[in-house]
Design goal:
It is a single chain. This protein is α/β, with parallel strands linked by helices. It is built from 12 helices and 15 strands. The protein is globular. The relative contact order is 0.14.
């Protein structure tokens, strides 16, 4: 993975990455290993990709305070990437991973005097169901949420910000729609639904995305800048390609890269939102397993604009996407056709 934004570490650092076996976590681990850091990963499972990089793997549950505290011992930097994503499920499951897990990481850092914590959040924590166009980090959290993921990530964000007032140096990053080769969520979900997708809204809504290498790069930059400038502690940054695109063009480009036809059918956002209401009611009332085909949160995400001002990340972190959307899609197409 080539990178032009940060220099090689002067001396190897001992680093912990939670969720190191995930899509973003593995990309961060790879960059750290390439520059000579001593990396350990904390995940639910063991991953051969990490083993091949010589990464020490600690298997455990992020909600296990003792386990995560032990994993924090002896490190000088933690990237907390592990999370429970998705638009459906029990609130307790989301809270246990996203909130309790984050609180445990903070506690582990404090117990072992780990100086820096880089926390991976999401722009969805401020998404209020309306068009969000070029807003910056000053935009407030919404009064209500229609999904457990953004609600619990917002709580965790506030815990991290609070920890910055208590001596832990932190930076929170909000990458938006991470994609690229080896993607385990966004791209596979689109490809799996290729023949059933229906465009929601007029298809003109612009959204931010970020290529996987750029997202990983931003995390390393944040850690390095925080080490040099402690005044950045407690800050939150949106990170993206800095080049919003029509969401449904993006989806159709992914389908094309995977060898599928573009989405032809469409429905108004209001209709999708009402269908989401009915699905949510039915799934809750009858305790249906699996994930509804539509929810209120998903209808809004698919039909509304959500792109963000990344000038703060450019200024404070020196962030600039090194891989363009065009180059990223070339890599993604190659991966999809050869996996």
């Amino acid at each position: 993975m080539k990178n032009g934004n940060f220099m090689k570490a002067k001396a190897p650092s001992k680093v912990l990455v939670t969720g190191g076996g995930g899509f973003l976590g593995e990309a961060i681990v790879k960059l750290l290993v390439e520059r000579g850091d001593d990396v350990r990963s904390f995940s639910r499972n063991l991953y051969p990709e990490l083993a091949s990089m010589g990464v020490k793997q600690i298997q455990g549950d992020i909600s296990d305070k003792a386990a995560i505290e032990q994993a924090c011992e002896g490190v000088s930097l933690v990237f907390h990437v592990a999370a429970k994503p998705g638009v459906w499920g029990d609130y307790s499951d989301y809270y246990r991973t996203n909130v309790t897990g984050t609180q445990n990481v903070i506690a582990g850092c404090k117990k072992h005097n780990v100086p820096r914590l880089i926390y991976t959040s999401s722009p969805s924590v401020v998404f209020n169901g309306t068009d969000m166009e070029g807003v910056n980090e000053s935009v407030p959290y919404p009064a209500t949420y229609h999904a457990h993921y953004p609600r619990t990530k917002a709580i965790a964000e506030q815990d991290v910000v609070k920890s910055a007032t208590e001596g832990l140096m932190t930076i929170i990053l909000r990458p938006h729609l991470i994609w690229g080769p080896r993607d385990k969520h966004f791209v596979p979900r689109i490809v799996a639904r290729a023949k059933r997708l229906i465009k929601v809204g007029n298809g003109k809504n612009l959204v931010d995305t970020i290529y996987i290498d750029n997202a990983a790069d931003a995390h390393i930059l944040a850690a390095d800048k925080l080490e040099k400038n402690h005044k950045l502690s407690g800050n939150i940054y949106f990170i993206s390609q800095g080049d919003p695109v029509p969401l449904w063009d993006m989806i159709n480009d992914i389908l094309k890269a995977a060898g599928f036809a573009p989405v032809r059918r469409s429905m108004p956002r209001r209709m999708a939102w009402l269908i989401g209401v009915m699905f949510e009611f039915a799934y809750r009332t009858f305790n249906i397993s699996g994930e509804p085909q539509m929810t209120r949160f998903l209808a809004d995400e698919l039909a509304k604009a959500h792109w963000f001002d990344i000038n703060a990340a450019r200024k404070d972190l020196g962030y600039a996407p090194q891989v363009s959307i065009k180059e990223g899609f070339g890599r993604l197409e190659s991966w999809l056709q050869n996996r």
